[in-house]
Amino acid sequence: MAELILPEPVKKAGFNPKAKIPFGVTTEHIRAAMQDFIEFLSVIDGQLHTKGMGRFENLLMQANFSSMVGGNDFRQHPETLQGGREEQISQWPPRHPPSR
After folding, report:
1. Could you tell me if residue 52 is left (phi over 0), alpha (psi between -120 and 50 degrees) or otherwise beta?
2. DSSP 8-state class, residue 15
3. In whole angstroms, what is the distance from residue 13 CA to residue 20 CA?
4. How many C-alpha atoms does 91 have within 13 Å on its Cβ side?
5. Separation of alpha carbons 2 and 7, rounded Å
6. What is the chain's pLDDT, residue by residue, as a tens digit (100 residues)?
7. Distance (Å, rounded) from C-alpha 97 to C-alpha 55?
8. In terms of C-beta density within 10 A (0-12 exposed, 13-18 middle, 19 or more buried), how is residue 68 classed?
9. How far, in Å, CA of 10 to CA of 36, rounded?
10. Which of 30, 38, 49, 59 has an alpha carbon 20 to 30 Å from 85's alpha carbon atom?
11. Among residues 71, 69, 67, 87, which one has the least CA distance to residue 23?
């Protein structure tokens, strides 16, 4: 069986702390969301590895994987957003925010 290769944690040093992001989102929020997603993939890849299967991202077509990554949003922690967006976000259909 091939060796299981897991991604490295997201490093804080890779983010510009002076970045201006709307709705009270900080680079730490983005880093944490990216880390959560990496941990999610690691769990799936670990399980696939125990069954002798390939990595999850290799099993999906690239377009499907891209949609899955792009669909990750801040619904899990709407309290981190500011400016009354919490109510608007809770009304969005899954993974389809309104156009701006």
Report:
1. left
2. S
3. 16
4. 6
5. 16
6. 678 888 888 999 999 989 999 888 999 999 999 999 899 889 999 999 999 888 887 877 666 767 766 665 555 555 555 555 555 555 555 555 555 5
7. 29
8. middle
9. 10
10. 38
11. 87
pTM for this entry: 0.61
Under a CB-based contact definition with an 8 Å cutoff, are residues 38 and 7 in contact? yes
Dmax (CA) for the chain in angstroms is 51
Cite the beta strand spans of the chain per DSSP E.
none
Helices (H) and strands (E) in the chain, counts: 4, 0
| 38 SS3 class | helix
**Cα angle value 25/90/73 (rounded, 5°):** 45
